[in-house]
Design a protein that fits this description.
This protein is an alpha+beta fold. The protein has a single domain, classed as Thiolase/Chalcone synthase (Peroxisomal Thiolase, Chain A, domain 1), CATH 3.40.47. Helix content is 33%, strand content 21%. It contains nine helices and nine strands. Strands 1, 2, 3, 4, 5, 6, 7, 8 and 9 form a nine-stranded mixed sheet that branches. It is globular and about 55 Å long.
Length: 277
């Protein structure tokens, strides 16, 4: 459900209260921030997904990669924020949803019997992660679910910031992607699973790590998106849509202040102002 759209004349300012991170060579935000600020060498590796222990056993058995990654980063961000998970409205944003499940369903439809597993069908909807989050956290709050292909992180950030300011409430943003097996990978070459989560609030607190602002009509720009100096991390940014968050996370990790341009639409990027708290 998407209930808000940003007014291009309105400035938006939010504060980052908690961060979650999981991806190739990035097991969590505590370690990931050290890779991003340069204090710990980064080595590429496959994303290791934890079991979603917050889910009841039956749901845990049904959970695929997309649920595991989104719940892991969501829980990490919420725990860091000190807020109650069940009280937070949420925005879930993914370029493709559950790519592995999509592959399996396509394989079943191309087979002789064309029978689809009820679990596969159950997980095929784009809001599966949002549903599993509500089960694991007990959240009864509103949840928006977005898909904007490679623009999905920026679209999710824009939606979450708008909700936080308009509704005057903290919001959880979870952006995530999984890799496609072949032959779909040749058409959509996302190399691995990754997730990023932010708890943002319209008000600063003792836990605030950074301030993010969108300045009125200037939040869209034709300027190229910011890149990362580290070649392996830059490859993640270029190949996994949710990794488009890495320049923002790097600015937070390095406690940098200033303008930042994030990947959004073709020829139109998202310009934000970042400052440490």
């Amino acid at each position: 459900m998407m209930r808000h759209s940003a007014n291009p004349a309105q400035s938006l300012t939010v504060f980052v209260e908690g961060i979650g991170l999981l991806g190739p060579g990035l097991p969590n935000w505590a370690q990931g921030r050290r890779h991003l600020d340069g204090s710990l060498p980064y080595e590429a590796g496959r994303c290791i997904l934890p079991l979603p222990m917050a889910l009841p056993p039956a749901e845990r058995r049904r959970a695929g990669a997309v649920v595991k990654v989104s719940l892991a980063v969501g829980q990490e961000a919420v725990e860091a924020s000190g807020l109650a998970a069940n009280a937070l409205p949420s925005v879930f944003s993914s370029s493709s949803g559950d790519a592995v499940n999509c592959h399996e369903i396509c394989g079943a439809l191309a087979s002789g019997d064309r029978l689809i597993s009820p679990t596969r069908f159950h997980n095929s909807v784009h809001n599966a992660s949002s549903g599993y989050w509500s089960i694991s956290s007990g959240a009864m709050t509103s949840s928006s679910v977005l898909c904007a292909r490679d623009a999905s992180f920026a679209a999710g950030l824009l939606e979450a910031m708008t909700q936080a300011v308009v509704d005057d409430t903290p919001v959880l943003l979870v952006a995530y992607d999984t890799d496609y097996p072949e032959p779909l990978r040749s058409k959509r070459p996302v190399p691995d699973t990754m997730g990023v989560a932010l708890v943002i609030s319209p008000r600063r607190s003792a836990r605030s790590a950074a301030r993010i602002s969108l300045e009125g009509i200037h939040y869209l720009t034709s300027t190229a998106a910011d890149t990362l100096d580290h070649a392996a991390l830059e490859r993640l940014r270029q190949t996994i849509p949710s990794a488009c968050a890495l320049p923002l996370l790097q600015a937070i990790a390095k406690q940098q202040a200033g303008p930042l341009v994030l990947t959004y639409l073709d020829g139109m990027q998202l310009a934000v102002e970042v400052a440490p708290c």
